Sequence to fold (506 residues):
Amino acid sequence: MTRIPLSFRLPLCLVPLLSLGLGIPCQAQPGEGDTSDAQRLVAALLGETPMVEDLRRLTDEVGGRPTGSAANERAVEWALARFREIGVKTWKERFEMPEFWLEQESTAVVTGDGVRFAPRIVAAPFSTATPAGGLEAPLVDGGHGTEEDFARLGESARGAFVLIETDALTDVPGLFKEYGDHAVIEPRAFAAGVAGVIYQGSRPRGVLHRHNAALGTDNTTPILALERTGAERAFRLLRHGKALTLTAKVALQTGGAFPSDNVFAEIPGSEKPEEIVLIGAHLDSWGLGTGALDNGSNVCMLIDLARQITRLGLKPRRTIRFALWNGEEQGMVGSWKYTMAHADEMRHHVLAQSYDIGTGRIVGYFTNGRGAELVPVLATALTPVTGLGPFTFPDEPVVGTDNFDFMVHGVANLVALQESANYGPHYHADTDTFEQVDQHQLRLNAAIAAAVTYGFAQADIPYGPQTATQVRELVESTTLGDQMKTFLGIFDLWAKGERGLGADRP
Fold:
């Protein structure tokens, strides 16, 4: 995530839903003698399948998968091979990423009178590089990066590295707060003329993590995260009157537009093959860890769903399309380019789903402004997994993962609402590895996703796509517009008609 990743702000009214400590049964509880196709599919996904072994292979053997990296290209071929083994129609679609960015190495040294230490640092995606010999500047205490903090710094911020204090991250709401904070801190810092922004790592001890620079590809300043304990040492020194200097060396591999690939598989509909129920997860990850929670677990869940539908010989009424997106971590680019390339087909997409919060328990779905239309169908679809509920359906639109471009194309869309579990502390961190995955809960989530996907493929659908006017009303009457404005320029792209139906289209 982007969405989740991405930078999106979780509406405050939804925060309590993500911290529910509800007990769950070990398996779904179908009615006695129920042998429906949906129940058979749920039962299959709750049993022993290759899903966890797929995840081990993706994370341990392919590893972290930044878009544009050699590992990402291997992941594309790996996913194609898994789908082909199942025997479903499989293909990849090439699209253009706007800018290439990969970190090669980042180091830092902090010095002062009688002081020298070298804390670990990492560059934020779309940070700029430093000169080869490094960039040396005063290190100053930026507090929490508020307006008052920068007023206190005054001219001392100009030409300095500003160290920003962070709260310890414990859950997903805290993660979304980080994104929102960065979106306002960085413009303040740039206006103050800083040499660079350095965030105290919000994860414990020496765990490193990264968030996109708030301005994305328009960023022109070094933006770094410094391990938490090293930052605490620096703050103590600064707050006891010690003058400090930081020398950062950031080596990057950068460039212009480059090609990447989305991966697709499809099970054709038996009655309405032109109508599409899409289920998606993003294949890319950042490279500090191996991308197990974000988002390899859900990639492998989708593959297993296709596998079990095929193995059972089920024939859905509508086409089910499985999408593994690339470029999600860099602004949901793969799903954006898909909706533009398939613009004429969008009206035939009955539903687009996104799964992007690791293996936290699915407690419902964001219905993204379409609740009145979606909830009746959704509630019925979830009947085979009633025992895994209860489920809730918040209707406030959310930005930050691969549902977004379907939403602004007027397509009905869902984002799985999941408990925080351990997703937040390991998000974009070097600890996002296979051992963090709750394998049991992943199977339960797979059963829920299967029930929803197959249910919408079978149901009578009482709604159609939204018009550009309806999308514009959604943007203007909810928090959607404000969320878009804090996320990598997507509001401007939408307003110009380059994403979705556009603000000015009829």
Summary: Residues 100-255 form a domain with the Glucose Oxidase; domain 1 fold (CATH 3.50.30.30). The chain has two domains: 12-18+27-98+257-495, 100-255.
